[in-house]
């Protein structure tokens, strides 16, 4: 459609014909006659009556534009806002694209309303008694008296197929590309108009501005990467020099001390350990690389470095909590000054029914819990090498993993005062989200026909679109229970859009509150526009561009997308 850019300036209302805005001294102060600019495409005064001076044909109604104001302590700062309107006509392609985008947004809204308990059209009910019975039915837990109906798999499959059709629709992609370009241009005009205001009034010059005043959240950080590399090396050196007789491993034959472990791995002089030597920093170009420092084949320091890091960065090791606790305590003390909170990830494999108790015991007995500035993110890994590891020995089907993940959560949520559930219940109160990671590049986007998880043999790894639905559905159910009992709830924030096809990113748009990665979004203008329209959180990756390439940072900002910054430091903690 024909677009007109309208600008509210300090001396009047003007209408542009695709030109850059002139300087204020080039404009007539009263809105009658031409400005001082001689070029034909300069801004023309617009009196809002007949559109005869500088208006596009047919004439537009007077734009409704508001002055935006931002107040600081000294004086009020006025910003000029931009509004883009059209002549009211829409081509057939635009109408179709608008319907497609609206339908996709409605699909997402329906799923988010269910998991958040919003706009359901009925009351969820009162508190659920502790003796209420619950059971797993076709992969989802339900309890007696549950009033919330979860969206079933058949409807989910139908909605995803509709989403795939829109994402791959050529005309809709063209319209969305045009809309995103208009947002870029709108931002450019805004900067041109307000550049001097920014330079003169920006509080950054005077000590940090808004960024220093708001709360920053280090989100989606693996706990094993919480400390600086040099701090880790210094800690290893200090332990080797002053506490070398500590037993770090036990076997039937003898106990292994730290000194014995170092000698066995030919580390004779701890003072010579460096960040590069233990494989935490590539020596060539000083940039982060995608590698697993726990793998002796991928760690640049070799086998001995991989073993050393496993000893210090494994949850069941004697040192991991000593590294993490000072960081959490420092964040608590410095919050008033720095206003920094964290969301650290804890791996949850679902390999046993007692795993939740082990994690909760480790967190609270080592002083890592009850931190006001931290919320835990439970990360469920679905990497192929992990599924085939001894962690899951004896597993017959995929239902067993879902049982181990969600049934203990139900026990602790319904009966938090039971001695076996108390620490798990306390841990659940400190959890903010659930995250799933997987091998996106090794699967297609076909949604399988309905088959309950207990009919999927363990050696058959179901697609992420299938598994993530069951994670989401179980979060819907337990959120319903916890809301009724006045407890905190959880959101779903999977890793998706790192590589491979667009199916994972499409699933993330529908099911999640926000996603991690989103690198493949650049390949789909429809998804970019949908994420913008829904203000769906997606990260802006600040990482080695040769390894993971995402949408340009300032393009995402100028499109007013809801983004957060993610410095990817990939260190496996499993």
- Structural class of the secondary elements? alpha/beta
The largest β sheet comes out as: 5 strands, parallel
Q: Got a strand count?
A: 19
Helix content: 25-40%
What share of residues are in beta strands? 5-15%
Biggest sheet, spatial arrangement of strands: 9-12-13-14-15
Please report the number of helical segments. Answer: 17
Shape by Cα distribution: globular
Termini separation comes to 53 Å
What gyration radius follows from the Cα positions, in whole Å?
28 Å
The mean pLDDT is 77
Low-confidence stretches: 1-73, 285-291, 540-554, 566-574
Give a description of the structure.
- It is a single chain.
- The chain is an alpha/beta fold and 574 residues long.
- It has 17 helices and 19 strands.
- It has helices at residues 92-116, 153-167, 170-201, 209-213, 229-242, 258-264, 303-313, 320-333, 335-338, 355-365, 384-387, 399-414, 422-428, 464-484, 503-511, 525-533, 553-558; strands at 3-9, 12-16, 44-45, 68-71, 76-79, 82-86, 134-137, 140-143, 216-222, 247-250, 255-257, 340-347, 374-381, 431-437, 491-492, 495-496, 516-517, 538-541, 563-566.
- A five-stranded parallel beta sheet has the order 9-12-13-14-15.
- Strand 4 and strand 5 form a beta hairpin.
- Helix 1 (92-116) packs across helix 3 (170-201) and helix 12 packs parallel to helix 14 (464-484).
């Amino acid at each position: 459609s024909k677009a007109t850019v309208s600008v509210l300036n300090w001396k009047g209302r003007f209408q542009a014909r695709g030109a850059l805005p002139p300087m204020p001294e080039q404009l007539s102060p009263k809105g009658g006659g031409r400005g001082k600019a001689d070029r034909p495409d300069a801004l023309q005064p617009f009196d809002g009556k007949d559109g005869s001076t500088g208006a596009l044909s047919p004439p537009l109604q007077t734009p409704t534009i508001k002055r935006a104001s931002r107040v600081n302590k000294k004086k009020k700062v006025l910003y000029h806002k931009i509004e883009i309107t059209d002549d009211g006509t829409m081509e057939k392609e635009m109408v179709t694209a608008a319907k497609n985008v609206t339908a996709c947004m409605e699909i997402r809204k329906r799923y988010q309303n269910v998991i958040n308990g919003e706009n359901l059209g009925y009351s969820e009910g009162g508190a659920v008694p502790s003796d209420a019975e619950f059971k797993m039915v076709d992969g989802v837990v339900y309890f007696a008296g549950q009033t919330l109906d979860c969206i079933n798999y058949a409807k989910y499959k139908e909605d995803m197929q509709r989403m795939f059709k829109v994402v791959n629709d050529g005309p809709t992609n063209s319209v969305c590309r045009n809309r995103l370009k208009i947002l870029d241009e709108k931002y450019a005009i805004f900067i041109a108009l307000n550049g001097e205001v920014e330079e003169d009034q920006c509080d950054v010059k005077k000590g940090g501005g808004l960024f220093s005043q708001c709360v920053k959240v280090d989100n989606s950080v693996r706990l094993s990467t919480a400390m600086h590399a040099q701090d880790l090396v210094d800690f290893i050196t200090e332990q080797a020099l002053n506490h070398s007789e500590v037993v770090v491993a036990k076997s039937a034959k003898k106990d292994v001390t730290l000194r014995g472990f170092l000698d066995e791995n030919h580390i004779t002089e701890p003072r010579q350990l460096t960040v590069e030597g233990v494989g935490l920093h590539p020596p060539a170009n000083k940039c982060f690389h995608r590698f697993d420092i726990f793998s002796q084949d991928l760690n640049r320091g070799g086998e001995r470095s991989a073993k050393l890091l496993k000893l210090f960065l494994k949850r069941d090791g004697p040192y991991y909590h000593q590294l993490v606790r000072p960081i959490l305590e420092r964040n608590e003390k410095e919050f008033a000054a720095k206003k920094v909170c964290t969301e650290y990830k804890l791996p949850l494999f679902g390999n046993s029914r007692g795993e939740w108790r082990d994690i909760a015991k480790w967190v609270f007995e080592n002083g890592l819990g009850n931190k006001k500035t931290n919320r835990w993110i439970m990360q469920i890994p679905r990497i192929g090498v992990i599924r085939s590891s001894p962690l899951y020995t004896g597993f017959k089907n995929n239902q067993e993993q879902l049982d181990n993940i969600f049934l203990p959560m139900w026990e602790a949520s319904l009966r938090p005062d039971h001695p076996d559930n108390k620490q798990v219940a306390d841990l659940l109160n400190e959890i903010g989200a659930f995250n799933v990671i997987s091998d996106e590049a090794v699967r297609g986007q076909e949604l399988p026909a309905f088959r309950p998880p207990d009919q999927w043999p363990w050696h058959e790894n179901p697609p992420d679109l299938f598994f993530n639905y069951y994670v989401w559905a179980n979060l819907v159910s337990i959120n319903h229970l916890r809301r009724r009992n006045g407890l905190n709830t959880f959101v779903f924030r999977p890793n998706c859009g790192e590589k491979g096809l667009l199916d994972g990113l499409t699933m993330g748009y529908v099911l999640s509150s926000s996603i991690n990665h989103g690198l493949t979004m650049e390949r789909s203008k429809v998804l970019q526009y949908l994420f913008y329209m829904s203000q769906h959180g997606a990260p802006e990756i600040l990482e080695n561009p040769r390894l993971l390439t995402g949408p340009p940072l300032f393009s995402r900002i100028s499109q007013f997308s809801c983004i957060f910054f993610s410095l990817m430091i990939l260190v496996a903690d499993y």
